[in-house]
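During the second year of the project, the team shifted from modelling isolated chains to modelling whole assemblies. The rationale, set out in the original proposal, was that interfaces cannot be judged from single-chain predictions alone. As a representative example for this report, we include one of the complexes processed in the last quarter. Its constituent sequences, exactly as entered into the pipeline, are reproduced here:
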Amino acid sequence: MIKTNKRAQEEMVGFVLIVVLLVIISMVFLSFSLRKKSPVETSTEVDNLLSTMLAYTTNCALYMPQYETVGDLIKSCYYNEKCSDGKETCKVLQETMNEMLKAAEGDLKGDRQIKSYEMNISYSAKQSSGLVLKKAEDSILYIKQGICTANSIGAQQFIPLDIGNIILTLKFCY
Amino acid sequence: MQTTRLYARCSRNKSAQLQIQETAFMLLALAFLFALMFIFYSNFQVKQLYSEKNRLQAEKAVTLLQKIETMPEFSCLKGNCIDFDKIISIRNVSGYDALWKGLSSIRIVTIYPNRSIITVYDKGRKDITYSGYVPLCKTQYKEGYIWQDCDLAKLLVSIEEAKAT
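Output from the structure prediction step:
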């Protein structure tokens, strides 16, 4: 009777050991798979595209014939300036960006098909009121085409302006 | 008496056989479990390796393109851009062939506002092509003012693939 009990106890210990081993292994796997991925994958190609877009010369000149680049036009738009032909800089910026993004959308290389894109340009600065530092953010331009449901690649760039930065974020979903 | 002893021996043998079978099944199940774990782990590692490979390839492409972009034969007077007038004057000039050693083609595709292709050099081979966006700028002159008019373009550089002998 005692011998049978001992054998049963040994088997139980073996079983418990196996269960513990399995739990530890599955915990390790779970921690690997649940590791949080960043929502947007930073892409060198999109970053490259964004900096090239900033260097594009628009057809808006504040003082003829000094035509503004997209980078300069963003600053002019933030200050609500007008082109020498009377057009609003923000309107020219929106038109140019829309057309450029449409042209670039079909050109982004790779086997992935771009389904949608999103661009956000805003100004962010830390303002001090008394002893408190406040973060102020103004939207300059927001363009969205299509609905982003799956994976995305993107990039972010900063243009220093006054005490803050103009933040450009471009995201393509595929 | 002899029959009882024989019966007891048979019974012990059967029990031992059962125990061996049990251990064998247990070992088989464990081996299967470890094989499954190994497959999962190797899959994960392969995925990681591929993403790392893609990242390195992209970095290599950017470095190569930046090197070409900053060559005096391509670069603008100011800023990181390609001079349209320079590439028009050097395209298909055989004197530059030594400079393009290791490359099989150099092309510039303007994307916006108009789409066009400028071939600077082409050996007529299909090799690995790297591409990157660059501003393609023309120097404009009007009423005593000089400024740069830049388009959105893409620089495509094909490099000769090393052949295994």
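The CA atoms of residues 17 and 107 of chain B lie 76 Å apart. The mean pLDDT of chain B is 83.
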